[in-house]
Amino acid sequence: MPSPERGTILLGYDVESASDSTRGFLQGARQLHQKYDVPWTIYLTGQTLTARVEDVREVIADPLLTVGQHTYNHVLLKSIYMQPGDGQPVHGRSPNFFHQGGTLEQVREEIDSTQTLIEDLLQIECQGLTGPWGYYRGLVDRPDILQILADNSIQWIRTNARDYRDCQPTPFSEQPFFYTDQGFEDILELGVQGYQDDFYWDRFDDRQYGETYQDYLFAMLERVAAEDLVWNVCSHDHGTVDTETFFQTKGQWIEELIVQAMDLGIRFASPPQVYAEMKAAVRPSGGGHPLKEKQ
Ligand SMILES: [Zn+2]
Q1: What pLDDT score does 293 carry?
Q2: Residue 48 has what pLDDT?
Q3: Per-residue confidence (pLDDT) for residue 7, from 0 to 100
Q4: C-alpha to C-alpha distance for 159 and 139, rounded to whole angstroms
Q5: Alpha carbons 275 and 187: distance in angstroms, whole number
Q6: In this structure, what are the phi and psi dihedrals at residue 180, rounded to the nearest 5 degrees?
Q7: Which pLDDT does position 71 carry in this prediction?
Q8: Which of 84, 97, 134, 289 has the most other CB atoms within 10 Å of its CB?
Q9: Which of 108, 286, 135 is nearest to 196 (CA)?
Q10: Which residues does 32 contact at the CB level (< 8 Å), separation at least 6?
Q11: How far is the CA of 284 from the centre of ligand 1 (A)?
Q12: Ligand 1 centre from 114 Cα, in Å?
């Protein structure tokens, strides 16, 4: 008998490779999520949707699927400056790595055009976004970018996805919040807790939980259940050229994660579901930070 439901997991994938891996990932992920009746979200770049629209259309009717966007060209909303401080190279550079963000005009164009594309090609009014690469503290310091999101009816985002070094893992203390203090009480930051994917675990993890990514994932599941946390899990359509390859790589750990989470009584939710729940929780007292208002 699983214990009562505690903890929430969202599964969301950047679909950005504009290659055969897009098809392999989408086919594999649909099969996996239908097998366990677990919701999933894809964050599409405009480039990928343009190049692989038929692959996306093949899975779009899945009622478990929600669609978000990931900009048109994968332009960073903010610059990142990674300082791992461990003497090891990062993205081929050492000791630090800088990647410049887009200008505000570029960011607007990237987001506007992808909203239009998703509406034109998929007939969906997209309400979600993942910020390319993710940033320390998300968009708490960028009301100008939040305004662009608001202008595009974006309601739930994943941009809080790095630690204080602009590296990973993002601490699990980073839980979903509305950008109320910035004046955008209708935009929910979901974050990406932990690592953005297996390859980031491989680079950054100190192996304190074991020698495999699954060791880390299972340890975090215990914590999510014990502390009733939200975990927004991320992966990518990288190296998944067909369904078989998907189930040998990403699909393998995603499936093990799903099974283990179910054993622990953790529930699965979609971003719109978490958004509706958190909105309902703040509304009676007239807005503000949900955690503060619980006191
Ligand atoms: Zn990405």
Answers
A1: 46
A2: 98
A3: 98
A4: 7
A5: 9
A6: -65, -45
A7: 98
A8: 134
A9: 135
A10: 247, 251, 254, 255, 258
A11: 36
A12: 14
- 162: CA distance to ligand 1 center in Å? 13
Q: Note the pLDDT of residue 283.
A: 77
CB atoms within 10 A of CB 222: 14
Q: Please give the backbone phi and psi of residue 239, each rounded to the nearest 5 degrees, phi first.
A: 65, 25
CA of 274 to the centre of ligand 1 (A): 22
Q: How far is the C-alpha of 277 from the C-alpha of 255, rounded, in Å?
A: 26
The Å distance, Cα 222 to ligand 1 centre, comes to: 27
The answer regarding whether domain 8-293 maps to CATH 3.20.20.370 reads yes
Residue that the structure tokens 């790595």 belong to = 97
Dist. CA 106 → ligand 1 center (Å): 17
Angle between the N-to-C axes of helices 143-151 and 104-122, in degrees from 0 to 180, rounded to the nearest 10: 20
Do the beta carbons of residue 165 and residue 159 sit within 8 Å? no
Alpha-carbon radius of gyration of the chain: 18
pLDDT, residue 4, reads 58
pLDDT at 92: 94
Distance 4 CA to ligand 1 centre (A): 35
Q: Report if pTM > 0.90.
A: yes
Low-confidence ranges of the chain (pLDDT < 70): 1-5, 284-295
Question: 240 and 19 in contact (C-beta within 8 Å)?
Answer: no
